[in-house]
Design brief:
Order of helices and strands: HEHEEEHHEHHHHHH
Largest sheet: 5 strands, mixed
Distance between the termini: 18 Å
Structural class: alpha+beta
Number of helices: 10
Strand content: 5-15%
Number of strands: 5
Amino acid sequence: MPPVALVTEHTVYACVMGSRAFGLATEGSDTDRRGVYVAPTPLFWGFEKPPPHVEGPAEEQFSWELERFCELALRGNPNILECLHSPLVEHADDTGRELLALREAFLSRKVRQTYAGYAADQRRKFTADVRAHGTPRRWKPVMHALRLLMCGRDLLRTGSLVLGVGDLREPLLAVRRGEVPWPEAEAWLNRLGEEADEAARTSPLPEEPDRARVEDFLIRVRRASAG
């Protein structure tokens, strides 16, 4: 089966992510689509296994096979967890709705490390500029690092994952436009990191995700697909 056919014929869940899901879209923003497909169980019986992810067929579209998606979500991968909490769901069949109903099972205090790690990845994109010039030349990664730290902090505080930035849209877009002095943006980043550390100490989230519950779901989906 061609990889793209797995997306077009076997997608169980699809949503819009990126700036549109975060409430940070501007006139020129792309529409990032993400999805989950279930490869038919017989495809796993041969030597050549179905792909764990597929790009396309549309531009800015990326999908994961269900097992890979669940593995990454259990590790606290922010990109994956946030897909399950997008306010812009475009498709969900019965399996997709069951996956959505499981989204709290993937959450744990692991998100402190994973969100901090993704924010650090964004910081690496502008750290060299700061060292060389005293300020970033690209401000978009600064905005993304701030959003990641905010989202992770609030998730740790409340146990709920909310993607929309709400009334912080304009302050964040001001950072993206380079209107916020670097010392102020850096202080904001550092303060958010400290607040996330504090939130992790008293978080209502469990230490580990509910792996058994997720695995039970995956096995049932595989059995149903096997016919």
